[in-house]
Design goal:
- This protein is α/β, with parallel strands linked by helices.
- It is about 55% helix and about 10% strand.
- It has twelve helices and six strands.
- Strands 1-2-3-5-4-6 form a six-stranded mixed sheet, with helices on one face.
- The longest helix is centred in the middle third of the chain and has 75 residues.
- The radius of gyration is 39 Å and the shape is rod-shaped.
């Protein structure tokens, strides 16, 4: 309703920003969430842990006063911004910890807030900032414990032992190492997710191209035959009704077959996991293909017999021959074509020739048909050569591997394309 009252030339608001039901969590997914539970837990641990540490170090360090508790509260609550602003947070918690230690307050879990901030900064990718903050913490603590302690509370506090500094340094290194390990694991998971998403997109693209090729090959061949027979029927409708009836019968049979194959292809979209209800066509249907070409006015001379082929090669060979004959019907003035099948080792060679001349702006099939043949051959590791013959006419030459043991592995074959002029 609101979109109907938008000014002219201005898109409705729901189109620009998305309707609530379209992406209800879009803003939350784009920005990091506030880590309330972990922040409350760490802050409570710092406050209560420092209270127990104060009782344990009574007489050695200064007692906790309101200023100390404010410093502990600041160090804990600053973690609430650690995902949005990790660098200021890691330096802020480090500064709070150094002021806390410089005031002579007891050692305790104040370092936990610094560790969590360092961890978040490293995982977020701000490694140098986290290292600098931890180095500052260790250097500042060493300075306070060995040189500045004479002028800082509590009075009479002796210098810390170097063994204690070794413990602090070990603690700092351990925090940085764990943070780096977590960062590496997170980047690995991100790469794996990206690779899985890319593989899924690649599989979807391959399936889309496969379906596009199937639909093109089925429809281009069938519609070409239907177009020729429709022209014959119209031309002979008055002078030779019986021949016109034959042409209409061919149109009916061809359209029925095309609908069946299209229905089979579309069925894979509705239920991609189900097995096809009808077997994929192969060179065993070559006589049927020759008969269909004959009904379209094209005489096809076949030389050689196809060997036993793997299913992928059998389907690709059938579609390549089908598309080549369709191009002869559509783009050549010749009504005669020759199909030759040869086996050379583990390679099937298909050759389709016509004597021309070429007719039409797209003679030779330089559009989607030739691109589909090229993709089919390349997917199997084969080759396609298509172009005009020196003595006139047009030739399509395909070389396909006979036995494809791993049809899911895509190899790129060499392709030569010379468009007929």
């Amino acid at each position: 309703m609101d979109g109907q009252h938008e000014p002219a030339g201005r898109a409705p608001q729901w189109r620009r920003h998305g309707h609530p039901w379209w992406n209800p969590r879009g803003d939350e997914e784009r920005r990091p969430r506030w880590p309330w539970p972990s922040t409350v837990l760490v802050t409570a641990f710092v406050l209560f842990g420092s209270t127990f540490a104060a009782h344990a170090q009574e007489g050695e360090r200064a007692g906790l006063d309101p200023f100390a508790r404010v410093l502990l509260l600041v160090a804990g609550t600053a973690l609430l911004w650690r995902q949005r602003h990790p660098v200021p947070v890691v330096f802020g918690t480090t500064a709070a910890a150094l002021v806390y230690l410089g005031a002579g307050y007891p050692y305790g879990p104040v370092f936990a807030a610094v560790a969590v901030a360092c961890f978040s900064a490293v995982v977020a990718g701000h490694r140098r900032a986290a290292w600098a903050a931890m180095g500052t913490l260790w250097a500042g603590q060493a300075l306070l414990a060995h040189w500045l302690y004479r002028w800082l509370p509590p009075s009479g506090d002796p210098a810390a032992s170097w063994g204690q500094e070794l413990v602090v340094a070990t603690w700092v290194v351990a925090v940085v190492a764990l943070s780096e390990l977590a960062r590496a694991r997170r980047e690995q998971w991100a790469r794996e997710r990206a690779e899985r998403a890319q593989a899924a997109r690649r599989r979807a693209d391959e399936e889309r191209l496969r379906i596009a090729r199937e639909l093109h090959d089925v429809l281009a061949h069938s519609i070409s035959v239907i177009n020729v027979q429709a022209g014959v029927g119209l031309a002979l409708l008055d002078s030779d009704p019986e021949q016109a009836r034959t042409a209409l019968t061919t149109i009916k049979d061809q359209s029925k077959e095309a609908l069946g194959e299209v229905r089979q292809v579309l069925g894979t979209l509705r239920a991609p996991g189900d097995a096809p209800r009808a077997p994929a066509p192969g060179l065993d249907r070559l006589p049927e293909l020759v008969e269909q070409a004959s009904s379209a006015g094209l005489t096809v001379q076949v030389e050689g017999k196809p060997p036993r082929l793997s299913p992928g090669t059998d389907l690709a060979a059938f579609r390549i021959v089908q598309e080549a004959l369709t191009n002869v019907v559509r783009h050549s003035g010749s009504r005669h074509a020759r199909l030759r099948l040869d086996r050379n080792g583990n390679t099937l060679r298909l050759r389709v020739d016509d004597d021309g001349p070429a007719t039409g702006a797209e003679a030779g099939g330089g559009g989607n048909g030739l691109a589909g043949m090229r993709e089919r051959a390349a997917a199997l590791g084969g080759t396609i050569e298509a172009g005009p013959r020196p003595d006139g006419g047009f030739r399509v030459l395909a070389a396909l591997p006979i036995d494809v043991r791993h049809p899911d592995v895509k190899q790129v074959g060499r392709t030569t394309e010379v468009e007929q002029e």
